[in-house]
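Protocol step 4 of 6: structure prediction from sequence.
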Amino acid sequence: MQSLMDNISFQIIVANPSHKEYSSQITDEMENSAKARGTGIAKRSPAYVETKMDEGKAVIALTSDGKWAGFCYIEAWGHGKYVANSGLIVSPEYRKYGLARKIKNEVFKLSRKKYPDSKIFGLTTGAAVMKINSELGYIPVSYSDLTDDNEFWKGCQSCVNYEILMSKNRQNCLCTAMLYDPNSKRNHTQELALREDFNKELKLFDRWVRLKKYVMLKLNKSKDTISSIFL
């Protein structure tokens, strides 16, 4: 897929072993971005990202002069019953070009091709990512609708909000869960309704995310305070 904006040309393709030279840049920016947001994603090593490139389970965006611009990879859980498009990241200097949406579209298509019968899910704290997911047919769901694969949830251990997740018995956290079910007849109708809401007022969803963060962090802090009184 070729994209041209403001005289900058991007190539968005399935990553392969020739792209391993970018793995450290990708993982460094994933970590920096998570720190800047104050929330975490599962920390990945360059070797892990390179494995995804070897397997053809990642999408990478490059400029015409060979600079890394963005990345996202596929993970399968529960013996392929569930799939996640993880680690979506765009290099800071290219974040005004709509690359996140384009990369997300490409990795979604790759996921559907490789795992046509799998449910595709995601956890996010960003309203913009929620909007992109909605456009692809995801709908908000409870955490109980996601995979129960322990290996997936172990990936949350590097997140600063891991204690909140575990205090809720993995049933809630600051992230919003969204799911695309290829076998659900409800997807199309619900996705259209949700998309209309997003298009009307994205700020409402951004406020919801910030409110959820405020409430859950406040509750967790209160719990710690109460516990310290009795311990």
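Step 5 (inspection) to follow. Helices lie at 23-37, 46-55, 99-114, 127-136, 150-154, 162-167, 186-200, 202-230.
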